[in-house]
Write the structure tokens for this entry.
Amino acid sequence: MKKTFFIITAVALIATVALGLCACSDLSDVYDGTPYTDPDSWRLTLHTDFTALDSLDGTVWAPSPHGLRKYEYWCADMIEFGDEGLIVKSVREDDHKCSAGICPQSGVFTSGIETRDGDEVLFEQAYGYFEATVKVPLGTGMWSAFWLQSNNVGNIGNGGKDGAEIDVYESSFLSDPTKTGSAIHVDAYSAPWYSYGDHVADTGKDLYDGRFHTYAVLWTPDAYIFYVDGEETWRTDYRGVSTVPEFLRLTVEIRDPEYAVYGPYGQKIGAFENADDGANDFVIKDVKVFACDDFAPYVNSVQDFDDKKGAYTAAAVCGAIAVAAVICAIATLIVVLRRKKRTLQK
């Protein structure tokens, strides 16, 4: 009897803890276009209706960093506003006139927006529900993305816990239009520490039909859960869920087909071409962010983590020296044995 009571008590305690941690995390049975069921737990922290704007003034949004991205230039002049929302234009020009005087006259130009202006973060949040309603561009050689990032994503040694790049979606699937990709990037962006986990989901619907679709992530202390139009596409806790606030980004990227014919998720994206029919336009209609008060105790600051790059680099150097020493020792031994063999042969 006592054993049975102990087992029941233990199960009840575990269930209580789990419910306390995940009270806001399960939307699968209640999703109706809004990510909250209890107004006392969930609250709207950001809502930008871009159809009601004619500029980014007075908002928490700014153009993505002006200048060379990879092959393409991000230029704030490529952002326009229309009846359907904010439009990120993409074009190849030989007479580009950059109002900031940063871009060259000739090149490929596009842009993006984010809740960061230079080094100043205008809005950031750890955990919650993040969604963007957009029309993805239909042109070749390019893709749009909705992603979250922290300024310390370059730190290493803590997996994703001190900040990860969270790619809610990337639209590199024009040739396979029912699919979408999501990814988590951690520990800087260069070997040997960097790693990423990704997932390609087949939604069963054409996401390149020229209509608006809503891409979202539910970020809890336990996992990232990704959605397209309210349907779950992937969940993961790859390398540890980020515990620090992150800012939002909605961007377009273009690649030189001579050197990079593939986009994210190994997709062939072809060559970028100008389009007069708006096919290259990335249209952002609406962005919403919700916070769950139950997650507040699990939020950390970037100062709570040490960047272990120095220690890791020292360890890597020591390892390299040790390997070199072993190689040298083996080489020396081989030379000695060969000399000894020649001596014996004489």
